[in-house]
Amino acid sequence: MDEKHHAEKANWEKLVDQTLKRFPERSQNFTTSSSIKVKRLYDSEPESNQLGYPGEYPYTRGIQSTMYRSRLWTMRQYAGFGSAKETNKRFRYLLEQGQTGLSIAFDLPTQIGYDSDDAMSEGEVGKVGVAIDTLADMEQLLDGIPLDKVSTSMTINAPASVLLCMYLAVGDKQGVSLSKLTGTIQNDILKEYIARGTYIFPPKPSMRLITNIFEFCHDYVPKFNTISISGYHIREAGSNAVQEVAFTIANGMAYVDAAIESGLEVDDFAPRLAFFFNAHNNFFEEIAKFRAARRIWAKIMKERYHAKSEKSWKLRFHTQTGGSTLTAQQPDNNIVRVTMQALAAVLGGTQSLHTNSRDEALSLPTEESARIALRTQQIIAYESGVADTIDPLAGSYYVESLTLEIEKEVQKYLERIDDIGGAVKAVEEGYMQREIHQNAYQIQKNIENQEEIIVGLNKFQLEEEVEPDLLKVDETLEKEQIASLIKIKHERDENAVQKALATLRDDACQPQVNLMPAILEAVKAYCSVGEICNVFREEFGEYTGV
Amino acid sequence: MGKKIRVLVAKPGLDGHDRGALVISQALRDHGMEVIYTGLRQSPVQIAQAAIQEDVDVIGLSSLSGAHKTLFPKVIEELEKRDAADIPVIGGGVIPSEDIPYLLEKGVKKIFTSGSSTDLLANYIKELIEPGKKQNQPPKKIAHME
């Protein structure tokens, strides 16, 4: 700072002192969600800032050289409920409304590898997503949707290999070659142990399934993102922004380690790794978080793993606005929250975005709520002008300072996890789970003490809440789904089924064999998700928690 | 000091969202109760058995997956089968208000929906188990978590 600036700043500080006597500040201690201290004013660039240019290492300013000036982010709304037939209708509706990619929500039995007629599935069939038992359901789900034109994201983890194979089989039936199929499977088991809960098998065989997918897709389905390493659920479980990035990147490193250990070359699989983050309420911290995450991953891939392909260095990510920030009280206020969160994701350079619907603290969204959520993205994209230049907040003293601060704090966590012995070990010891829980409890206390204000919840409440119309999932669906499963089991070629399951079991017993070809055969023979997962349960065992 | 109130916090069904269940377990402990948390994916039978085995005073069920209308009444049925219908069952999670009358009719004592305070819940349980006893003020400080 030159002398003139010094004098100006001294002047301002004097003014502040005078003002504070009459108007004390609202808080003694302004902080972000990650307890980063927020200064009164930022008036200089942080030291050692490595911005670079868009599309260039370390990608602080975005992974493409032109960002949204060439192509807007993919608007991808997560949807699915009830039967495959009903969900197919919602998908077609969303595509007609201008959505540019599909995102399939599966029900919990599918996600945990149980058929709809399993005793464990009672009450859960078709509730939080679509019920898929066999390839027949998947055929109906994707009926009339051209898989060579639409990219599809599937939120499936423990049985990701099975649902991916079903998708490939449907593509095959549509006459689309595997090399043309695009999309993403979530396939991130570590965060299931940490935060989301839809695990089936223990870590070791789970990591094998994941690396089998990496290898198979590298050879046959090169445009598919083989994993979406997810901080979203870590944040929803109660972490702060720094923990979200740190634990996600630590998990990412564990997948890279596992794949390298299984004999793959880093540049053969790393370009197909994708990420998935949350967009929460603290606007600038969220923007800084996305920028920091890109920079950290690029450095790790280049310096630690010696990846040579630039594609391996780029952190591509999907964003969803924060479900846990929505209130059941005065649900229309959620539209405003979602707008700001979505804006943060766009200013942070996301590749795709899901905006939550206003009624999600109450139930699954109605068609009208889902449309408003999509329109929110379209208004940001087409009306606000924020997509017309690249990384518009770069150079903001505050945003750059936060970006650097988050990077530093994340590094500290990564060192701690390295000391424990890596993410798999840290998960097994419950380290991340404990960190997240402590933060979740603190948030709850802060809300109850009114240290944190949630509009409509602990301030500005209404005497009487009006509950909006909600989506109802048909209660008879469970019975219908079970009936259709029984019908398919009756009609399929039982010899082919038994043969496919026997091959699957043989392959499962040999750790060096890639399981994908046998799963694909089993799926094509109309083996159910439950039947395939039960073979693995018997051979691999089940994870029962920390 | 009397005997501590014992609470079973349970996650019926396949729902993996346990942030609420964990936060509530911790909060009730800070209110001086003994809390047993079942972990994820418990069947109604397992929950009823655990409640009897652990000799709890109250059961808190948490569900965010929409399966509450099937699973909450099942837990009560399983308690009845074991002559343990006197253990009160309360519930919480993502539960539309229109489902609440049905759940109350099936024997659930009370439903706490999204946004309820943990103090409110703790005081409700104290009043339920030890009616008329003077309720303590909520703690100002939080004990360190396990």
Q: Describe it for me?
A:
The complex is a heterodimer of chains A (546) and B (146). Helices cover 50% and strands 7% of the residues of chain A. Chain A is α/β, with parallel strands linked by helices. Chain A has a domain at 67-448: Methylmalonyl-CoA mutase (TIM Barrel, Alpha-Beta Barrel). In chain A, α2 (84-96) links the parallel β2 (78-79) and β3. Chain A is globular, with a radius of gyration of 24 Å. Chain B is of the alpha/beta class and 146 residues long. Chain B has a single domain, classed as Cobalamin-binding domain (Rossmann fold, 3-Layer(aba) Sandwich). Chain B has 5 helices and 5 strands; from the N terminus they run βαβαβαβαβα. Chain B has helices at residues 19-30, 44-53, 68-81, 100-105, 118-129; strands at residues 6-10, 34-37, 58-63, 89-93, 110-113. Chain B has a 5-stranded parallel beta sheet, sandwiched between helices. In chain B, α1 (19-30) links the parallel β1 and β2. In chain B, α2 crosses α3. Chain B is globular and about 35 Å long. In chain B, 47% of the residues are buried. Classes of the chains: A alpha/beta (546), B alpha/beta (146). Chain A binds chain B through residues 108-109, 111-112, 114, 119-124, 127-128, 192, 196-198, 236-238, 324, 327-329, 361-364, 434, 437-438, 440-442, 444-445, 448, 457, 467, 470, 473, 475, 545, and chain B through 13-19, 22-23, 26-27, 39-41, 43, 65-67, 69-71, 74, 94, 96-98, 113-115, 117-119, 142, 145. Chain A: Residues 32-542 form the Methylmalonyl-CoA mutase alpha/beta chain catalytic domain. Chain A: InterPro entries: Cbl-dep_enz_cat (IPR016176), MeMalonylCoA_mutase_a/b_cat (IPR006099), MMCoA_mutase_a_cat (IPR006098). Chain A: Keywords: Isomerase. Chain A: One of its GO terms (molecular function) is methylmalonyl-CoA mutase activity. Chain A: Pfam families: MM_CoA_mutase. Chain B: GO terms for molecular function: cobalamin binding; isomerase activity; metal ion binding.
